[in-house]
Amino acid sequence: MAAKKTEIKCVLDEKALHTVMLDPDKCRGCVTCMKRCPTEAIRVRGGKASVAYERCIGCGECIRLCRYQAKKPSHDSWDTLNDFKYKIALVAPSFYGQFNNLESIDIVLNGLLAAGFDDVGEVGEAAEYVTDVTRMIMKEGSLPSPIISTACPAILELILMKYHDLSGHLLSTLAPVDVAAKLAHERAVAKGVPEEDIGVYFISPCPAKVFALKMGLGVERPYVDRVLSVSDAYMRVLPAMEKLTEVRTLSTMSSTGLHWGISRGEANSTKGIKTIAADGVEQCVKILEALEDGGLGDIEFIELNACVSGCVGGVMNVENAFVARSRLHYLTRKLKKERNTIESIGKSREWFMWEQNPTVKDVFRLDDNRLAALSKLMEKEEILKTLPMVDCGLCGAPSCTAFAEDLVGGVIPRDSVCVRMQTENVKKK
């Protein structure tokens, strides 16, 4: 079935937000990050890496792989807690996996209150409502099969950039963090807190979520005001947890919601349908390519996570992904099994749906003018005939194809040559 393409409006200029910050003093130009970037957003020029941010999906692969720690994720600082009088912390399921010997997630929630927040919201609980809506959508069959989860913003960006024909398969629900933010804001207003005093803070495991929440993807305006890193929050919350003298019952999340923090958690929550789940950006790319080629058979639902093991594998976490995954499995045994539903909070299905629908992004086009783009495509093909096609990266581009595109696109001078071929020619002489 042909995929229907829809449109999104972003609330900020994408060029104003960088998900990855580069430290040129630490960068050694080793090309490791360049070779592994799934969208070929990185180039190495003058011995230093640079990022074409319009192509960056925030997956964090470059941060994860850089042995020189030249790349860091972009996020708000802990000092921004002073920006609002009434501060709400949104806690992702993966956050609980950072703590050793944790017997109750209520300890973490109380620790956040002790660390300076006035209220807490559980993203895992919000994920249960998204699960409820997903089941309704699956039952009515309003989207082409298989439906692709949009919970991972890095994968959503990847599809919008590189897999345009799959855009009609995207699940059109709000991300759980946006649902949690809306609910937390409503709760604060109901308590009589003035709108201007409310600040919603998400503790993020990855830079992709920072980008999505700052941009307000899928919503008319961002519901989250600040995005903190898990590593920063961990360092503040752990001492506060150790000083607790009383632990109030705050969590209303079920085991279903907590499972969303690890790969296959969302897929398993759909129940009774044929699902597939992949984690790690390379494996996700394989699934998307297989779907484009019609090779997934009767699969009805696809869950994709750019980070290995799911959100517990985010680069802004402090704990090993597999250790955190094990801890979440342990904690699920202590939670209720009965899942939260949208009926229990009196919300309609529409309340959980995208407010602004996404459109594809033509970041790989050679020219805005179609005739000029065709001419450059033909020129690129001619250039490729002269290249060795070994994708060595010596030229500062991740592949021979990327080098040819940089040439015809004017990114590098027209007289640029293949370094490998030039070196081999010198040796022959």
Automatic annotation (TrEMBL):
This is 4Fe-4S dicluster domain-containing protein. Pfam families: Fe_hyd_lg_C (PF02906), Fer4_10 (PF13237), FeS (PF04060). It comes from the Bacteria. Coiled coil: none annotated. Keywords: 4Fe-4S, Iron, Iron-sulfur, Metal-binding. InterPro entries: 4Fe-4S_dom (IPR007202), 4Fe4S_Fe-S-bd (IPR017896), 4Fe4S_Fe_S_CS (IPR017900), 4Fe4S_Ferredoxin_RnfB (IPR050395), Fe_hydrogenase (IPR009016), Fe_hydrogenase_lsu_C (IPR004108). Residues 18-47, 48-76 form the 4Fe-4S ferredoxin-type domain. One of its GO terms (molecular function) is 4 iron, 4 sulfur cluster binding. SUPFAM superfamilies: 4Fe-4S ferredoxins, Fe-only hydrogenase. PROSITE patterns: 4FE4S, 4FE4S_FER_1, 4FE4S_FER_2.
